[in-house]
Amino acid sequence: MQLKKPSDLLLLSVGDSVTRRNLFDLIKFSKVQGSSCWEDESWQIGNTPQQGINWIGALPTCRLVIIKVRHGSYKSDGWADGEKSTYHYSFKTRNEIISFAEKANKVLIDQPDYQYPILLFTEKDKSWSYEGAFSVSEIKSSYVVLERAPVSIWDCSGNKPSNPPSRTSSEADDSAAIDLLLRDSGISSSERMQLIKARVGQGLFRSRVAKVEPCCRITGINDERFLIASHIKPWSKSDNVERLDGHNGLLLAPHIDRLFDKGYITFEGNGRLWVSSKLPVNVHQAWGLDTIIPPKPLTLHQQHYMAYHQKEVFQE
């Protein structure tokens, strides 16, 4: 397929091929007003054509990310399964050192927050083969895990992606806190990575929460593959010790995590559920909040964090 404008990327189907020259020129001239590839300022493609990762629009709320993978670039790169639904993509390094403040890496770290699609291309002869739209599901120490997007990135009106979701104050706080963390030279790179993983409920934080919380307090589900490690005191409001404290977390089913994170539910010290009067009745009923498992008391440390949640997050 011949790409004439940056938005043509959204017309691609899995398996389509784009010549290297075509994609190179598209990236290069998308920034040149008056060129055949110019669309408008919001469709300029960031980073140089030679780089393996590019993005369209201003960071952090860009429209989409383009990843081009050459054979043998990084040893960790490659498909993780035979169905080609999961791909490992390495962070950019300079002299074998990873900087998480580098735009090419930060655009991967920020993807779970801003939910822009990642368009993956792999090398095929003298062309790029389009593999589809992906999102970041896990952040490892040297690479991210990309999962094939389960839903279309197009809106119902056409081929352009829907607008980036508006950010709540807590999400904006998270983004600002991550920026500070990335610039903090007083902590090691391994500690920084654990703190970033804690933001999305992974790594050391998740394993510590699992030792305190054996299952979801509402649904009773104990299969960790289907649970989210959620901070009680929000990550952005916690210090670095609190961010990794297993007592500052709950294992929750995804829909329950959403209610807890947005302050529609909280818990008493004895484990009893509180439901906000602002939660719509139909959601309350549909999500089974009246048929929960017997409450389990919170630990003393959990009660400390829950007091913050009740005061600062819960919507009475």
CATH architectural category of the largest domain:
Roll
Ranges with pLDDT <50 over ≥5 residues? Answer: 151-167
- The CATH topology label of the largest domain is PUA domain-like
Multimerization status: single chain
Radius of gyration: 22 Å
The shape, in one word, is: elongated
Percent of residues in helical segments?
Answer: 25-40%
Strand content: 15-25%
Strand/helix succession? EHEEEEEEEHHEEEHHHEHEHEEHH
Mean pLDDT: 85
DSSP helix count? 10
Question: How would you describe this protein?
Answer:
With 316 residues, the protein is of the alpha+beta class. It is built from ten helices and 15 strands. Strand 5 and strand 6 form a beta hairpin. Helix 4 packs antiparallel against helix 5. The longest helix is centred in the middle third of the chain and has 15 residues. It is elongated, with a radius of gyration of 22 Å. About 5% of the residues have low confidence.
Write the layout of secondary structure elements.
Layout (H helix, E strand, L loop, with lengths): L16 E3 H10 L15 E2 L6 E4 L7 E6 L8 E2 L6 E5 L2 E2 L2 E2 L4 H7 L1 H4 L3 E7 L2 E13 L3 E6 L20 H15 L5 H11 L3 H10 L15 E4 L8 H4 L5 E4 L1 H8 L3 E3 L5 E3 L5 H6 L13 H14 L3
Parallel strand pairs: 4-9
Antiparallel strand pairs: 1-10, 2-3, 3-4, 5-6, 6-11, 7-8, 9-10, 10-11, 12-13, 14-15
Helix pairs in contact: 4-5, 5-6
What's this, in brief?
This protein is of the alpha+beta class.
From the structure above, extract its key features.
single chain, 316 residues, alpha+beta, PUA domain-like, 2 domains, nine-stranded mixed β-sheet, two-stranded antiparallel ribbon, 10 helices, 28% helix, elongated
